[in-house]
Amino acid sequence: MPESKSPVVGAEPEGARDRESAARAVRAMFTSIAPRYDLLNHLLSLNVDRLWWRRAARTFRHILSRADARILDLCCGTGDMAFALESQVGKSPAQIVGADFSHAMLERARIKSRRKGSQCLAWIEADALKLPFAGGHFDLVVSAFGVRNLADYDRGLREIARILRPGGECGILDFGEPRGAIGALYRIYFKQVLPRVGTVISGVRGPYAYLPASVERFPPPDEMLMRMKNAGFAEATWTPYTFGIAGLYRGRKTA
Ligand SMILES: C[S@@+](CC[C@H](N)C(=O)[O-])C[C@H]1O[C@@H](n2cnc3c(N)ncnc32)[C@H](O)[C@@H]1O
Question: What percent of the chain has pLDDT over 90?
Fold first, then answer.
């Protein structure tokens, strides 16, 4: 009997046998590239990443402008999404927490945050699949290029829904797979050029080959929207950024 293909549960870096080993491999991978992560991000995206973070942050200005708002940047890495969110807060700043399970990435976020003199940011080491926050705590959860790396996408979405208050919003910014001629050109860059440049500059073999593989594995927008609804989001939409190279998922938790 032909072996049936098991449904995609989450990220599956090379060598991972189950969810635990996948999560460990993902953490080890980001820890190994943390020193060069920012440089490579900006270089490989030709600085377009900064526009995406800012555009995503602007989308949630209506929440960020509220002084009592509680906001989480999940899988915050070195903190750039959180900084973009901070740039949109009003005069009485909202509270923004950045959470990640890689200590090395968070250390970079802390250093950058001190350098910027950030007032309303706090950083916490935590696993996105088992968050140390009470249900209904946050008004907004944003995750940039994070959910794709979770060992269990649906569990991650359910955790986001759990920690949001009813009616709270989430934003998931991640890569997509553009179509047509632009898509074909982009794929050459993303699958051939980027892994080579990333490997040379980071000095680490693996993570930059994992990146295109993880994007290919990540569910397409229509499937992600369905998964978001199943996780507890009454409304869910996807907005493509830059020809669909990236895009923002928005969800509102059922009130
Ligand atoms: C591609 S980076 C994105 C970092 C940042 N948000 C950005 O936009 O540059 C993905 C981050 O997700 C984190 N991550 C992956 N799985 C996680 C998990 N289960 N819990 C917490 N953080 C996780 C990694 O440590 C890494 O810092």
Answer: 82
Cβ neighbours for 194, distance < 8 A, ≥ 6 positions apart? 44, 208, 211, 212
- 211 vs 227: CA distance, rounded Å: 22
CA of 145 to the centre of ligand 1 (A): 7
Q: How many helices (H) and strands (E) does the chain have?
A: 11, 7
Rg from Cα positions in the chain:
17
Confidence check: pLDDT of 2 > 50: no
Ligand 1: residues within 6 Å at CB?
23, 26-27, 30, 41, 75-77, 80-81, 100-102, 105, 127-129, 144-146, 149-150
**63 C-alpha to center of ligand 1: Å?**
23
Residue among 100, 103, 125 whose CB has most ligand 1 atoms within 8 A, to mutate:
100
